[in-house]
Automatic annotation (TrEMBL), chains A, B, C, D:
<dbReference type="Pfam" id="PF22725">
    <property type="entry name" value="GFO_IDH_MocA_C3"/>
</dbReference>
<dbReference type="InterPro" id="IPR055170">
    <property type="entry name" value="GFO_IDH_MocA-like_dom"/>
</dbReference>
<keyword id="KW-0520">NAD</keyword>
<keyword id="KW-0560">Oxidoreductase</keyword>
<protein>
    <submittedName>
        <fullName>Gfo/Idh/MocA family oxidoreductase</fullName>
    </submittedName>
</protein>
<dbReference type="Pfam" id="PF01408">
    <property type="entry name" value="GFO_IDH_MocA"/>
</dbReference>
<feature type="domain" description="Gfo/Idh/MocA-like oxidoreductase N-terminal">
    <location>
        <begin position="4"/>
        <end position="131"/>
    </location>
</feature>
<dbReference type="InterPro" id="IPR050463">
    <property type="entry name" value="Gfo/Idh/MocA_oxidrdct_glycsds"/>
</dbReference>
<dbReference type="InterPro" id="IPR000683">
    <property type="entry name" value="Gfo/Idh/MocA-like_OxRdtase_N"/>
</dbReference>
<feature type="domain" description="GFO/IDH/MocA-like oxidoreductase">
    <location>
        <begin position="140"/>
        <end position="286"/>
    </location>
</feature>
<dbReference type="InterPro" id="IPR036291">
    <property type="entry name" value="NAD(P)-bd_dom_sf"/>
</dbReference>
Length: 396, 396, 396, 396
């Protein structure tokens, strides 16, 4: 078990989640593939950085993310900044030979994503994009069932990601509502997670047909705070334009013939982190809802007529990643555990000299899908989705 | 309370449901608007008709549905036959001045539906199409909330109708898989119910963009039996072509600016009568699932932050139609009660000389939407939906 | 298929439910074991009786229930009156050789129940007590699984019956709160249903240990109306004493060694008809909730570790009574269907010259359990439950 | 923010949970009340201890727990051993002036617990017993509603703790099935959590009436491994006697007049960590199920008749402890977060020089209740529960 030094850029919500993961990963997965050492954290200024170091248990702090890139003792760069900084940091880190984990979406556009993908390919390092939800044990269990053929050939997929934190027209104009920072709205922020799960569970997208809607065209300007996420209310002050989508709705034709639909909105009162998918196959069905994330619903056609129905499989030791989690089912996992598992698989790839999914190829592919969704909504028409050569070759 | 004589054409599953409704309606709703008298039932031959009369409590039976039309003592004609007979019977009944209730879908196409609609308009009789699900008390409660403004302006609608009775490739080639009898597959059979609820709750459709899929292209020929509904298994015998859709998926733009998606399939293992809708408004959300039909889920934005969440409102005496149902909430209603309520509202319109919704205008409108969905799937493009003048005028 | 004439005594909530059952039974179960003819209905006065006859489809009406007993053309007497009249009517009907179905609880006490039981034993007629909930298909499916050994030996049972219609201290003092009419409160009114299901699914009770609580000691006097069931609110007027229990809680030792608990209250806000049971066996578990009455939850220990969990079996054609209900699962049943099935089994016993469960022996046994629960609560101690000889002999 | 050095005794399942809490607490709650420093961990031998130190991030390790007591630099002793060691360690730590957090149950009996309670009272240190489940945000929210009077006066409480990890007769005879180590079975292991929540939410117990059952009298001897928790299967080898309960069922009379029932079993197939409670009050009801731990169900009587029902309140930033958890509701918490919150409140009490609940008085009180439950089951009678003077005085 080697120690690997991590430089984390960004001490917000994601910085917290990743710090937790580095600390807890060996506690959960033992023997660990490697021991992540919280070496240096970067924040906007010295004070914030020093505070973040103490809070998140880092040995050093800096206000200059480039010093992390330049530090030869650092093995891993973790990018947990707003989206518009991803590309510059990742490309620099790749050139410096660091292994990279980058928050999703990979970047604002397919073009930016391609540049990042090209950089990591050239560098030969381990790279990962943090679509953590596919590491929820119940989602990994769905993958296992599908791969075992337990639900037969997949016919269709319907996914949703519904939240309500921006339903209030007075929630502030955070960077998440600004195209120049975020790239897109609900699409890049949350729909990408569902797109990632659709690719993971069903396969590559062939074409999409989409509607993008902006329900609340102006929001109060945000004063202070990095990312209010709707928990601060604006007031009577000036408002700024929202130039991203509040909701995305798309139909999908998959390369393997399956069909699907995906919907994501941050304006759904009463839905909090309602990431769901339902998959029908020729031999069974699967349903997942992250709000009840420990559970996977599965129905097997092969069950007898008088006892067939959705089974509520409560994930635990007998299921994917179970050896590292809690010893009794239903002690239950939270958001943190998805990040702990993610960290495990990332460090395992580094330790073993392999690769991990989803990586920058996947992040780039998701960006291509996002671009196609935007184009489709603009043209009111089906738009084909190109597939990154490496992924197409993998026959995914 | 007048007695009104009913002639029922068709003694299958729907004949049973309607007979129950006529018998039970005054038991539930008292004083009743009128007393339905089960006067005559028509079936394919004399023996079947006589048996149906005894089973369903009709005074007379016939193997010739035209004798019902010709009988001046009959006030109401009830059409519960396969779809291809609807138009001929309804037009004849309208010309004979009978009030008409017709099972859904109104007919196989918009063209057929228009002829029926024209006939009843000319005849000045009371007409109804049996989209019974909108009469589920919880659905009517959703309508009430929306009309009261309790969830604000409607932003979107997502509906599903998922069943599994035809998921088995060996379920027989009933008339429901044959275009010449059924007109379409999951679209006409089940999606129409969701389309009806979408129109009822949100408003008219402006355009659609759809995928139709046929997953099982051949099924065993059915020998005997009117409508096996998947409960009989075929065998090694000869197979015939399925020329209708197993699944329909559509996106919708509503005339009032809301967006939506609808999916219907009869190949979803584990889903039985999974008619659901979720509606997000600017002030709240609503969710309904017919499999738990007594309940409506509603979230009000106006609830305090520390106590907001979906309320499970269990319908009963305090909710729509509650005065006629059971005196304690959660005694619970079944499919039959939706038909009892439907009969109540139909006879009330007759007794009061008014009209009722959904009527043939609604049935025709649904057929126009179905036609647009088919066209959209064929063209791989958005297709506009024309609106029946009467409905457009009503500003619905 | 013989016609059998029914005389129904009582035109309230239960009269409605039974009338529906007689009308609908042959519609659902065909060929029917016999055709119930709605011959005569008795109510408190001539006007009420005549109105009930028209509403519920009876040929004749009377204000004197004894005329039903005396009418030789009547085959079946149906007792749907308040509890204090059950014994007198049933004993008279038995002596007149009528088959009898009596609403639950059989009577106010074990003593009254014994007199009724003795009368029907002597008369040799078919008798039934209307614990309809055990005829919910999902409950019958639980019974089937247990009898097949699918969950192994039963270890324990926990049942509830929670309602909220009397939680409001201003709901009126209906007969259900008066000991002299009702015998007991939540115990006789609703707990008896759970006791019946416990006996049906697990076996005879050996001893009980109970708490009876009266939370609301006075309620407004009711003026007019037979049985307000909490839907009418009292006001500032005079109040009368409640001398029955609002809640009963009991532990149970079953004769076969299993243990259990039962709780019933009509003061549980948010619970409507929350009849639940959970049963753990050595090979699996079962859970049922009447508020979602179409579903049975079952977990089989024999399922593989990575796919074990409660299955939600949605009852329909493949389950008990399915041949008579709706042709598609999840069209769904309501309270009425439990009564239709009950009527079917009762008339089947008459037609075949057999007997049916639960009958007056079961009703008497339940009354003995009720008496033991009352005694236990008074003594603050475990009290043994005697078992009716016939049932003990049946080795139930 | 002071650093406080922790000595942790026990590196099993609980050691992991507590280590996570110490590492993550400042990440979640910032500014933290104090920074826990993982100073020394003790395990059964040097190798195990060294490995635990590396895994859980401790600076030092030892095979002698007394060296932790003797180390003046250690501020806090954390007892995460099997139950029979709690008393000796806690008393020694108290005498050494360490603050103490001890896993539940406090000890094997009331007598042992009293000795521990006396020791910490004399020492004047901060002490806590780790009934973590009451720190689930949804449970704390229930407490808040009750204290605000939002559900009125509490009438009753029904709690369960159902697991299935010992349902298999071949799961090994871990220390949890041996009275001399564990004290009791399901009672001490899991029922105590529900007892703690009942005391927290309703108040002190006045008397109990209980059944204890042992369903599986012998289990395979365990060879190696500290605490198999049912995940290892025994085989054909020799078996040993189980001398503790598999299931406990009790009725409760609370000092304030409310009544209740509690059931706990580790033999309930399909239930994993099914910690539930339902509370009915004069103005509303509450339901909680740990398997869906982010949610609290609450029904307010004051809601309008046509929109009343259980609300599913999804806990997040607007609810107890929300400021320290994740910024979006439904990111969701797992078992770890309950421990992180527990650590927060414990260190807060140390930092502020106050006290925390549940502490050793509560742990002792729970032991007294356990003893009364055992006595009640032995005597088949109600048994009164004495209340620790300090708690009685607090008028709890």
């Amino acid at each position: 078990m080697k120690n690997l030094n991590v430089g984390l850029i960004g001490g917000g919500f994601m910085g917290k989640a990743h710090s937790l993961a580095y600390s807890a990963m060996p506690m959960f997965f033992w023997p660990a593939p490697a021991i992540p050492v919280r070496h240096t954290i970067a924040e906007a200024n010295e004070n914030l950085a020093a505070e973040a170091a103490r809070r998140f248990g880092f040995e050093n702090s800096t206000s200059d993310w480039r010093s992390i890139i330049d530090d030869p003792s650092i093995d891993v760069v973790d990018i947990a900044t707003p989206n518009h900084l991803h590309a510059e940091i990742a490309i620099a880190a790749a050139r410096a030979g660091k292994h990279i984990i980058c928050e999703k979406p990979l970047a604002r556009t397919g073009e930016e994503s391609k540049a990042m993908y090209d950089a990591v390919k050239d560098a030969g390092i381990v790279h990962m994009v943090a679509f953590n939800y596919r590491r929820t044990p119940a989602v990994a269990l769905a993958k296992k069932y599908i791969e075992e053929g337990a639900i037969g050939r997949v016919l269709n997929f319907r996914g949703t990601y519904l939240q309500d934190w921006s339903a209030d027209p007075n929630s502030p104009l955070s960077w998440r509502f600004q195209k120049k920072v975020a790239g897109s709205g609900a699409l890049g922020d949350i729909a990408t997670h569902v797109i990632d799960m659709a690719r993971y569970l069903v396969g590559e997208f062939a074409s999409v047909n989409s509607i993008l809607s902006t329900f609340i065209p102006e929001r109060p300007l945000q004063t202070g705070g990095a990312d209010a996420l709707g928990n601060v209310r604006g007031g009577e002050g000036p408002r700024g334009e929202v130039d991203v989508d509040d909701e995305v709705m798309t139909m999908v034709r998959f390369a393997n013939g399956a069909v699907g639909s995906i919907e994501a909105t941050r304006n759904a009162y009463g839905r909090n982190n309602f990431i769901t998918f339902e998959i029908h196959g020729t031999e069974g069905s699967i349903f997942f809802n992250y709000e009840r994330r420990d559970e996977l619903q599965v129905c097997f056609a092969s069950d007898g007529n008088d006892r067939r129905g959705f089974r509520t499989v409560y994930t635990g030791p007998a299921h994917p990643y179970g050896e590292g989690l809690w010893p009794i089912p239903a002690l239950g996992i939270g958001y943190g555990e998805t990040k702990i598992i993610e960290a495990h698989d990332f460090f395992k790839a580094i330790a073993e000299g392999g690769s991990v999914s989803p990586n920058f190829a996947d992040g780039y592919q998701t960006a291509l899908i996002d671009d196609a969704i935007v184009a489709s909504a603009e043209k009111n028409a089906w738009v084909d989705v190109p597939v990154v050569a490496e992924l197409a070759a993998a026959g995914k």
